[in-house]
């Protein structure tokens, strides 16, 4: 659009030059009456110096229009780069938040799985120890039966001792009776 | 929205139009990103998972404590079994003596 504007301004300058030449060549023919006509023509031929205002040019029947353009800022590239970088950082931050939440959940799951593995090891040890204990208690069973037998024998011994004690008391009483006679 | 942007805004410079367009595009990209995150429902799922984990943690700690106590009790039972093993070896002699006594 700036290039078109430059070409249009060049054409405009050439048109002004031709208008000035034609005005200079025909001063007499135009006379005073047409001076007023020419004045507006010159005014029309010489538009105000405002390159920013759009105007039409006619050259060979082709009308062109110049779009109003403003001079580009010299650091527009840097501004664009800065804008895109900041946009990328912002979007990355938005997505990173969710990623970090997932990482946190992953770490929590890993720790929980480690804890469950420790509990599994403890359970395996307990199971092994209890199996050994059951086997050892099974091997102790004959001894436990012997202890039961011992207990029965001790109770029968106690009964025998009580009977002996009673018999000895009877004997003592009879002996004393006989001794009195 | 596109039709509104394509309509010519009279009285506004090219720079203003361009900056408006860039701003609207940026806003669209941001809105798209947020919609993608919202559509994935990751926040809801993560929040629910974190809540379940917190509830479960207490149970896990209690279970671990119980297992450690069980292992200690098992060790004590082993010690008691060894002591019983040592003492029941005398029961044979004791039984022989009792048999003689009762004869």
TrEMBL record, chain A:
Residues 14-29 have a biased composition (Low complexity). One of its GO terms (molecular function) is gamma-tubulin binding. One of its GO terms (cellular component) is gamma-tubulin complex. This is Putative biogenesis of lysosome-related organelles complex 1 subunit 2. Residues 1-71 are annotated as: Disordered. The lineage of its organism: Eukaryota, Metazoa, Chordata, Craniata, Vertebrata. Belongs to the BLOC1S2 family. GO terms for biological process: endosomal transport; lysosome localization. InterPro entries: BLOC1_su2. It comes from the Eukaryota.
TrEMBL record, chain B:
Its main location: membrane. Keywords: Lysosome, Membrane. The keyword Membrane applies. PANTHER family: BLOC-1-RELATED COMPLEX SUBUNIT 7, BLOC-1-RELATED COMPLEX SUBUNIT 7 BORSC7. It comes from the Eukaryota. Signal peptide: none annotated. This is BLOC-1-related complex subunit 7. Belongs to the BORCS7 family. One of its GO terms (cellular component) is BORC complex. It is found in: Lysosome membrane.
């Amino acid at each position: 659009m700036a290039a078109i504007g430059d070409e249009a301004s060049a054409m405009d300058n050439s048109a002004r030059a031709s208008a000035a030449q034609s005005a200079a060549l025909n001063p007499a023919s135009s006379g005073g009456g047409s001076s007023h006509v020419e004045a507006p023509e010159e005014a029309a031929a010489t538009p105000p110096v405002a390159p920013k205002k759009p105007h039409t040019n006619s050259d060979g029947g082709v009308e062109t229009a110049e779009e109003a353009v403003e001079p580009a800022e010299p650091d527009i590239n840097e501004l664009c780069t800065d804008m895109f970088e900041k946009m990328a950082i912002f979007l990355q931050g938005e997505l990173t938040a969710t990623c970090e939440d997932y990482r946190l959940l992953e770490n929590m799951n890993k720790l929980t799985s480690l804890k469950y593995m420790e509990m599994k090891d403890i359970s395996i040890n307990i199971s092994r120890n209890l199996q050994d204990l059951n086997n050892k208690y099974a091997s102790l069973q004959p001894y436990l039966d012997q202890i039961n037998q011992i207990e029965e024998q001790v109770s029968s011994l106690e009964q025998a001792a009580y009977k002996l004690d009673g018999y000895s008391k009877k004997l003592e009483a009879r002996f004393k009776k006989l001794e009195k006679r | 929205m596109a039709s509104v942007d394509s309509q010519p805004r009279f009285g506004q410079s090219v720079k203003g139009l361009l900056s408006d367009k860039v701003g609207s595009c940026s806003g669209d990209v941001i809105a798209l990103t947020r919609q993608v995150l919202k559509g994935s429902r990751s926040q809801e799922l993560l929040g629910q998972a974190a809540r379940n984990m917190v509830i479960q943690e207490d149970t896990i700690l209690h279970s671990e404590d119980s297992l450690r106590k069980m292992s200690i009790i098992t060790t004590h039972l082993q010690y008691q079994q060894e002591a019983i093993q040592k003492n029941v070896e005398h029961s044979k002699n004791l039984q022989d003596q009792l048999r003689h006594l009762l004869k």
